[in-house]
Amino acid sequence: MEVCYRHPNREGVFFCQKDGVRMCEECACCHSPKVYCQFRTACIINMLTKEGSMASCADKAKLKKSGQ
Ligand SMILES: [Zn+2]
Prior knowledge:
The structure is a single chain. A hairpin with a 4-residue loop joins strand 1 (14-16) and strand 2 (21-23). The radius of gyration is 12 Å and the shape is globular. By secondary structure, it is an alpha+beta fold. It has one domain (1-57). The termini are far apart. Helices cover 25% and strands 9% of the residues. The structure holds zinc ion. Zinc ion binds next to loops.
């Protein structure tokens, strides 16, 4: 099983081609949305974030700070 880069016990269902990392559902977000990415047009993470069904890294960080 390919695992999340932060959670070795979870499956890395999302894959960032630019960073070459797998992420679980909780960790998945674009780490550098403002930086050019040649894979972005085909990136499921980017698509879901745009769609609103996935929180951006910035939003995830905010949620963590507020303790949720
Ligand atoms: Zn994870």
